[in-house]
Amino acid sequence: MTNATQALFDVDRLLSDTTAWVFTLLLSAGVFRAVGYVAGRVVDMGPGLSSGVAAFVTALAILPMQRHVTAWVGRVDRDRHVAVAAVERFAAEVRAGRREPEEIEDVLREAQQDAEVDLQLALPGEAGAGSTARWWGARPGLRSRPGDVIARIRLGWESARARRRIHDLARAAWVPIEVSRLRLGLRNALGEVEASRGRLLEATMTERRRLERDLHDGAQQRIVATGMRLRLLQERLAPAEAAEVNAAVAELRDTVDELRRIANGIRPAQLDDGLAPALAALQAACPIPVDLDVADLPEVGEVRTLTAYLLVSEALANALKHAHATRLGCG
What we know:
Blueprint: H1 3-42, H2 47-76, H3 78-95, H4 104-112, E1 118-121, E2 133-135, E3 151-154, H5 160-172, H6 174-234, H7 239-266, H8 275-285, E4 290-292, H9 302-323, E5 328-330
């Protein structure tokens, strides 16, 4: 848009404001005369007192009158009035659930007749940095605060008329803008929760592997070594004492088996060779036939591999326990 055209828009704004104030002053004069007449003739006040009352009432009424007159003059600008009405219809459709609030940027572009309108939603806690045009996030009619910025709107071209129109459009679009902002914040929060969950699962798997390794390389090895030493000692003992040592070695063997079961529950050793071999081992251990289809299993990471294995294992166990099945399928 050329500078000359922008200047024409600025002149249009000046003419509109001047017209609004002229009508406001005429109405104010009428109010002053009417109140003065009523106070002087009907209530029978003195000239000075009636003039004071008329001036006081006029002062109270002038700003509300100016706002109403400005709105009325603005309706003379048919394009602007039609644009605001279009955004208001869209907001009503959003409330009724017929439109998605995320369409608001396209609606604003069409209403503003500016394809470069850029709507930047401000997430809760974000500072309201300056931009070409801003709308402070307060309900229409309420005083806004700098901390209430809910969106920033950048225009492709700027003029006094363009700023005035986008301000009116933003007021009409308050609900879709706010809903879009809250939805965006919710999506970001859910994404962060999912990322945190992934990090927690990965840390859990790392700890599982460490604990499994410690059990295998630490406690189990020491117990096995102790059992071997007891076996050597058993050969030099009398039969009665050797029997007691044999019982102790059996207890140690049971302890090792228990530790292996614990370690396998933390992370099944079958997963060392991958998910497909681990599922095949479950299939072989099942007392009834299992149709297993694990061809071309993709690599899905340690956490998902363990989750899939445990799900299949639990499903097979539940089917055997509750379904009284004669054949199972897994794929």
